Amino acid sequence: MKIRYYLAASAAALSIAVSVSTPVMAQETTSSVRGTIESDKGPVAGATVTVVHEPSGTTATSTSDADGNFSANGLRIGGPFTVTVDAAGFETAQITDLSLSAGQAFRLPIILQSQQEIVVTASALQGATESSSGPITVLNREDIEGVASINRDIRDLARRDPFATIDLTNSRTIEIAGQNGRLNRFSVDGAQFSDDFGLNNGGLPTSRGPVPLDAIEQFSVKVAPYDVSEGDFQGGAINVLLRSGGNKFHGSAFYSYTDENLTGSRTKGRDIILDFDSKQYGGVLSGPIIKDKLFFMIAYEKTEESDPFDSGPQGQGFSAPIPGVSQALVDQISTIAQTRYSYDTLGVILNGIEEDEKIVAKLDWNVNDDHRASFTYIRNVGTQANQRNTSTSTSSPTLGLFSTGYELSEEVNSGVFQLNSNWSEKFSTELRASYRDYNRGQTPYGATTLGEIAVCADAVTAGSVTSCTNGVPRIFFGPDQFRHANALNTDNLSIDFTARLDAGDHQFKALFGYSQTNVFNLFVPSSLGVFYFDSVADFQAGNAGRLIYQNAVPSLDPNDGAAEFGSSSFTFGLQDDWQVTDKLLLNLGARYDLFANEEKPLLNPNFVTRQGFSNRVTFDGRGVFQPRVGFSYEATDRLIIKGGVGIFAGGTPDVFLSNSFSNTGQLTNSVTIDRNTSAAGCNIAATTPNVAAICAAALNNVSLSTIPGLVGQFLATNVSSLQNAPVNAIDPDLKIARQLRATLSVDYDADLGPLGDGWLLGGNFLYGDVLQAYQWTDIRSVQIGTLPDGRARFGNLPGTSGPNQDLLMTNSTRGRSYVAVARISKQWDFGLGIEGSYTRSDVKDENAITSTTAGSLYNNNVFNTPNAASYGRSIYEIKDQWKFGVNFKREFFGDNETRFSLFGEYRSGRPFSLTSFDSTGTSSSARSAVFGTTGTGSRHLLYVPTIGDTRVSFGDNVVNNVVVQTAAQAETAFNSLVTSLGLEKFRGKILPKNSQTSPDFFKVDLSVSQELPLFIGGAKLKLFADIENVLNIIDHDWGALRQVAFPYAATIANVQCLSTAVPSGTGVVNIGSTPAQNPNNLPAVVNTTSTQTCAQYRYSNVVSPNVDLVSRQSLYGIRVGVKVSF
């Protein structure tokens, strides 16, 4: 006699719903089955349990102990599996259609019968459940088939998780639990596949993801996995497991297409001009090489697409037109560039070509019943077009022409070998070795016969000759400064070893990992020179206002400025999975990550002299201890409570370390040569030999085609400049970033009476506390006073001068998150399924880690105290987020499936800050005359004055000697903004970080498919369509994505410092304080340095926040295709 158990979908297969449950990372790639065998007389000892993976015939066996416990480890993921139990004196029991997930033990409580034959169907096996103490979303291959993804991007799978948000404006990065996407960890078949160097905003080494969607067997997102094998992240762990071959041949091939005719053309009253097409094609083939023994899988996918850009001149159909930029202005600049400098700017960039090619191959070898090996090869090559130097800012608009754009090329080759061994029924091991090689190139579209050129659109010079008038656009052409010498290669070797011991109620695990990474990073900005012209007339005459030049010294060969270093990490972990009772499972463990660096940055003795410590600090010798506790409690047959607490560390991009190797102040030297405003010559010290000739060569009648020899010689021999050169360094007391996370989750299988049984209701709560995060500050800036609103004012470190920075990577201990999730899902037998979730987030941080270079990490945040990023609401906080899905599949004729899957999300907009703009403080010119720091002038949080506040007066905004906004108009506009933006409660205070929120966003996607018979060996033809942003089809004003652009700060007023407090509208002196410069004896002088008295802020040029319409993401898109499978 035989007992059969058929597991219901609600018990084992409903995987889209959340199942509550670089250091080395031994990411789990296998599954396991644990359970107890009992009879009506108690535990059954000596029972033989056989677990068979039906597609491949892979077999594992176990014997129950005296307490009836059994376990089978190292199993394939997916299924179906059949579990057979044989015991003397009992009928055979068989459990079929079992599906397993990676890293989650499936618990089977089995009761044997001695005489009666029993057939139990569907969910009759009570207590069968997967074990996972942290929140997790799992998608199997069937789920993935129903995801609408025009880009065929694994990040479209990740956004199904309630904790995840996809940023469609920032390389489609995935932010999990309110954390930056660079802090996520991606893995493929257990090997890390994140962009571990950290240059890509999207978090992956290439733009579209590393593997074809058709090659994926299982995909998961975890926010707090307490297993010690999970590490190297502080956002989330995103894991991809590839398909394996079985005893039957399976294959498919597809082709899909979209273009501007299948894409919307109007949103929010704007007609959007698009001209592009996109083709995707590929296939997968799997099967046996030797039946039951050796199997293969190979997959291929290619994308060819032209990408339209959003920003360009006004009146040309761009969704984000650049204020003040006309096609006539572009033509004027381009004509001068061609006729005077023999350079083709290539005009306005409309489209760029993107290509992506993926190849995956996998071999699985059942060596014998106790040993199983696999090998995976992954190759991904991609190229992508990029527009540079383009901003819709009203205070500083810019347009980069085609020649300032570049093609980003990336190539990844990776191999993974894994060996799973069962040495006995109680002891098993897993050995994994992986290697990855990554190459990244950045090729400018424009000829490299000159460097980056910026031209202010003023007809003639107005005011400063080194910065454009506020609100006047700048036009850029030529290779942008960051592409002058830019190449990257990394290679990584990782070895992971895990041992498991079954001790009845205790399952012990020990792991060890080693990783070695080698980096070659060539990054020497401005090595071709960066020229700024203060007016169109100056550009025509060849008279530059500024030249910035950086190169390796003394060779003047940028290749000599490359950073080359290696780093290693070691991981140790111990864990006990303790089945305390048949209802309660505890996971107790700890891991330790240790970091090592053999090489050190080149010593800069000048830095040591002025700062008192070495710039050669690395991560060497630093470690982080990560204890974790998780639990799963089956309170009733319908209610499961899970949770845990633990520390999660790592995820630090290698570029943070590389910055210290590339910016020692010794490998390269840089010089900024500025034309004097009121006198002949330039800012080079008058005592410099040949100074007049150097100034003239750099700025007068320039050819742009070469860096003048006198300038190069000055750079190579200017020892005083090297003594003052900027440096990136690491705090000697730096600690590895880490967070404490605690979660509590509830799952309830509800019977809602008239609405039916099988309603899965759930909730999750996550608390995160930043123990150590990273922060960047300029330690060459020191406080020298206070400003009218009480914030600190900075100046040069004693003994230093000029705008150069010593940027220190240090720690912050401020940051926390509260994230709550409510979930519901239901599946009906006739093929309909629904799901929904609501997520509420409250996230605060200090440095948002928006970028990669130390300068950008320092600049691209908002500041309260002018020399460090402010603490407050995070830009990654999406306050409210609703997600819902409707899935239907049914065979209406024959066995041909009809399917549609709808997925939508409605979410709050992205937070942004309100700031003031100080044009005197930029990283390449001088210290801010207001705040005393160097860097971006629009990062300082706005002070909101009270009515009649003497700390602030308002002044005229003058452009080209014309008053475009009077002081009275500015004051009226400011008070109107205070009311409309809800700032009344902040009067008399500095605004908090991210006090504002961009508009809400609502997006609905739909996937539709229909199978048709081909009558050839059971093959199928599938017609499909993926439709993104369905709402824009219904109404052109729906589905629009509008937000303040990166770095999510909007300037609403210019700010200056006055030496004396005066009423609004009072005239002030802008150039100095001598009687000759102030013939009318005006009462107040505008500060030109931060060392002068600042008695009052002067606000002018008051404007509303600029909220961009992101056109491509606001339009509907339809991709149609055909797929053949067998």
Automatic annotation (TrEMBL):
<dbReference type="GO" id="GO:0044718">
    <property type="term" value="P:siderophore transmembrane transport"/>
</dbReference>
<keyword id="KW-0813">Transport</keyword>
<keyword id="KW-0998">Cell outer membrane</keyword>
<dbReference type="InterPro" id="IPR008969">
    <property type="entry name" value="CarboxyPept-like_regulatory"/>
</dbReference>
<dbReference type="Pfam" id="PF25183">
    <property type="entry name" value="OMP_b-brl_4"/>
</dbReference>
<keyword id="KW-1134">Transmembrane beta strand</keyword>
<dbReference type="InterPro" id="IPR037066">
    <property type="entry name" value="Plug_dom_sf"/>
</dbReference>
<feature type="signal peptide">
    <location>
        <begin position="1"/>
        <end position="26"/>
    </location>
</feature>
<keyword id="KW-0812">Transmembrane</keyword>
<feature type="domain" description="TonB-dependent transporter Oar-like beta-barrel">
    <location>
        <begin position="242"/>
        <end position="1033"/>
    </location>
</feature>
<dbReference type="GO" id="GO:0015344">
    <property type="term" value="F:siderophore uptake transmembrane transporter activity"/>
</dbReference>
<dbReference type="InterPro" id="IPR039426">
    <property type="entry name" value="TonB-dep_rcpt-like"/>
</dbReference>
<keyword id="KW-0472">Membrane</keyword>
<keyword id="KW-0732">Signal</keyword>
<dbReference type="InterPro" id="IPR036942">
    <property type="entry name" value="Beta-barrel_TonB_sf"/>
</dbReference>
<dbReference type="InterPro" id="IPR057601">
    <property type="entry name" value="Oar-like_b-barrel"/>
</dbReference>
<protein>
    <recommendedName>
        <fullName>TonB-dependent transporter Oar-like beta-barrel domain-containing protein</fullName>
    </recommendedName>
</protein>
<dbReference type="GO" id="GO:0009279">
    <property type="term" value="C:cell outer membrane"/>
</dbReference>
<dbReference type="Pfam" id="PF13620">
    <property type="entry name" value="CarboxypepD_reg"/>
</dbReference>
